[in-house]
Please model this.
Amino acid sequence: MNTTHPHADACQLPMKIYDWYNGPYPARVRIALAEKGLLQKVDFVSINLWKGEHKTPEFLEINYSGTLPVLELEDGTRIAECTAITQYLDDLDDLDGSPTLTGKTAVEKGLIHMMTKRAEIEFLDAVSVYFHHATPGLGPHVELYQNEEWGLRMRDKAVRGMRYFNEVLKSQPFVAGASFSMADIAVIGGMIFSTLVELSIPEECEALREWYARMQNRPSVAAWAAMVEKGE
Ligand SMILES: N[C@@H](CCC(=O)N[C@@H](CS(=O)(=O)O)C(=O)NCC(=O)O)C(=O)O
Model:
């Protein structure tokens, strides 16, 4: 199993990404790729979640966790986890002019890391658990264990998470502060998943709605939406 190579830190293009075109977590990496101007440098390999292709022995060799997306470099190095993939893309040193997504200073990096984790724990991952446990999810052939009560608790946690981010965005333009970052992309993932499971934004969350409208106007998010529209 190829996981690390001596030159794993080299900038290696083109890259392969195992993903599913309209998945909320894959969206986080597709938006990051678009922000870094790398969408054209990537070959997307579709893994059909609805058929359980991400749970086959072959795919579990690619990603022990059996989740998407996974980045695979030219030399076979594989990086899973949206935050790790985004960090790798952001650290590629020959992409002049693209925005920094994971922070420049120690404080920025710390705050972006914190708010990205908080977006996952308090919002995106909670919506995902609701989807898999309190809805039919990907179907009985994939959802081998479900706990509806746990799923409903996570739905309520996600709604609290929306209210939290609404409070945050009342006093700053982006999730981690003055600039767009990986933390915004993580909350965008939560909003995408919420839409998929028809989990409404609470009426009073005006700052969150305004922020999301602004995010959807970003070229990277519009590019993601266009790819979904085309089924790419
Ligand atoms: N912690 C992982 C979570 C990834 C994840 O849950 N991906 C979803 C893809 S999608 O639901 O967003 O399309 C998945 O593989 N789900 C499949 C499953 O959980 O069975 C990450 O950040 O990459």
Summary: The chain has eight helices and four strands. Residues 1-10 have pLDDT under 50 and may be disordered. The first helix runs from residue 24 to 35. Helices lie at 24-35, 57-62, 82-91, 106-134, 148-171, 182-196, 206-216, 219-230.
